């Protein structure tokens, strides 16, 4: 698979690293942020982590499926994210800390759906 | 709470927890937690004075005149969905900063082990046994995040953490622990307790060796705990916890844990069965270097770069 270019990917330095309750986050590069725009392929609403799979079209017409990892269903529910929020085929722009080894996966930071609604999966640990 | 403040608070919590995984090791050796409060010092001294977990439990029972049996009419209302307050990555909420050392007074071998672990974390080498889908187990159970329920009956109290469906059973029917000859290490240990008014006092033994959290000290199979659970407000459960573990702790480690009841007005929060292995994409393996990496994803191949 070729690396994706020209698909609204941006990289910037951040002050925070991802962290998950089930595993260390050392496989993600917390100093980088990747943003892709595509369409939702599948929302795997599972424990201990959920994965939002997004199909991203490359410049050469090929498609790369990116996976964005978040906490499991109950924590996402607390963040106001339900399974029905990300139906297959929905347009999305999504950001995360990318894998250090270059695989198309990332620790999910934020997302904006095609209709403009924004989602913060990490808000789920807030007490309210 | 507004969505904006909720998001901001969540972000701050995430920042604190997340920074811990990378920043702790680099500076922990130079920083100490703030001085404990007078109340915390008093509780810590109580643990030291009683020397053992069993001794403290018996002392508290004597102070309570043996405790009072619970009846269905006197069962306290501990219903609701709860979660732990504070960063899930510290055992002692008073540690406060990822740059502070844990507040435990460790024995030299266990302090050395902790410093070596923090050094590895600082070099990006980190693996959590939970990645193998192991339960957290007691006492780590106390500080794992996610949803919790407390189910009180006169003879037995069930303390539930959603993660890995971990349920602690606290027997309050007057039974003792199994004999030493019949004891063996258990993920949640063996818990007996008594009620003193609205306080539940618990003694737990027979636990497996583990770690208080991913970047926290280790404990041995000799660890025992004493807890005092009390609902101090409609949405607050306060728990005094003493850990005893002579090989690892130079003196008992006293902390206060706090759990908060979530609003759940729309009833959307429900504890479901937790299957750690249900999604191949969550398979994390320990590398030859001793750190963590994902195995093969279903949506790509490992050699995709």
Helices and strands in order:
The complex is a heterodimer of chains A (128) and B (305).
Chain A (H helix, E strand, L loop, with lengths): L33 E11 L4 E9 L5 E9 L1 H6 L12 E8 L6 E9 L4 E2 L9
Parallel strand pairs in A: 3-5
Antiparallel strand pairs in A: 1-2, 1-4, 2-3, 4-5, 5-6
Chain B lengths: L2 H25 L10 H13 L2 H11 L18 E3 L23 H15 L25 E5 L3 E6 L4 E6 L18 E7 L2 E7 L4 E2 L6 E2 L4 E10 L2 E9 L8 E9 L22 E3 L5 E3 L11
Parallel strand pairs in B: 4-5
Antiparallel strand pairs in B: 1-11, 2-3, 3-4, 5-6, 6-9, 7-8, 9-10, 10-11, 12-13
Helix pairs in contact in B: 1-4, 2-3
Which class of chain A in CATH terms? Mainly Beta
Sheet-strand content of chain A, in percent, reads 35-45%
Q: Roughly how many Å apart are the termini of chain B? A: 43 Å
Mean of all residue-level pLDDT scores of chain A? 87
Count of domains of chain B? 1
Q: Radius of gyration of chain B from the CA trace?
A: 20 Å
Question: Describe it for me?
Answer:
The complex is a heterodimer of chains A (128) and B (305). Chain A is 5% helix and 38% strand. Chain A has a single domain (34-125), classed as Nucleic acid-binding proteins (OB fold (Dihydrolipoamide Acetyltransferase, E2P), Beta Barrel). By secondary structure, chain A is mainly beta. In chain A, strands 1-2-3-5-4 form a five-stranded mixed beta barrel. The longest helix of chain A has 6 residues, at 73-78. With 305 residues, chain B is α+β, with helices and mostly antiparallel strands. Helix content of chain B is 21%, strand content 24%. Chain B contains four helices and 13 strands. In chain B, the strands form three sheets. A nine-stranded mixed beta sheet of chain B has the order 1-11-10-9-6-5-4-3-2. In chain B, a hairpin with a 6-residue loop joins β7 and β8 (218-219). The radius of gyration of chain B is 20 Å and the shape is globular. The N and C termini of chain B lie far apart (43 Å). In chain B, 42% of the residues are buried. Mean pLDDT of chain B is 89; it is low at 1-30. Chains A and B meet through β2, β3 and α1 of A and α1 and β13 of B.
